[in-house]
Amino acid sequence: MTIEMQKERENEATTEGLAMSTSLSSIALSSKMKTRGLKAGFGKTEVLKGIDLDIPEKCVTAIMGPSGCGKTTFIRCLNRIHELTAGAKVQGEVMLDDEDIYGPNVDAVAVRRKIGMVFQKPNPFPTMSVYDNVAAGLKLNGVRDRKLLDQVVERSLKMGFLWEEVKDELHKSGAALSGGQQQRLCIARAIAVQPEVLLMDEPASALDPTATAKIEEAMMELKKQYTIVIVTHNMQQAARVADYTAFFYLGELVEFGETAQLFEKPKKELTERYITGKFG
To answer: What is the pTM (predicted TM-score) of this model?
Structure first.
């Protein structure tokens, strides 16, 4: 390689890096959450290897990558659920607005009220009715006003795109609903306490296409009020619902950007190989 060719490549790399920095800087201006140097794992096993990521406010951000890349560990670190697992460890910063949620004086329970979670497998409280599932968080926080509870339950079920299907069966067991309905019930339960961020760990992975479409429709409506982070194996789903997408591989953030750009013109060869099905 000639000196001229080497300089040209260095200039291209610098230009690309500056373009990425500019893009991330503009996103950072409206970021709801940020991670800096986030490392996490179990015992001696390191799963996340220093993740720096800005999560834009009132957008859907998808986290994708092959199995074992750290997606679920990452999202569980965002509301301090990871630390509940035996042997779990976390290092680095996770900022919600201007507060590090791992700060010494921060209450983890309060964090989880602000950053809700919808898990891969629907988990309605089996002994509770549809109504009580949605109202559970409010009651736990001391709300007893029946009129207020009624209003919040209806609003939450409407935002979860479930109200029309259950409005005449609110006292039916939540466990008696279909799988797709149960997942939307869990979404309604999560937003009833009015979190600022909603995390979703592969919320449609066990659902049929019709139920999946309703979950995605709910996400598109919910992002008007909430910041949403979704883990998904389904690249088509990421393309449909996400405004921004992060690609993880072996515990590292390979690439992050607007979803359309990342899928159509990825900056990293590894990203291109993944989205074209060459591995993963």
So the answer is: 0.87
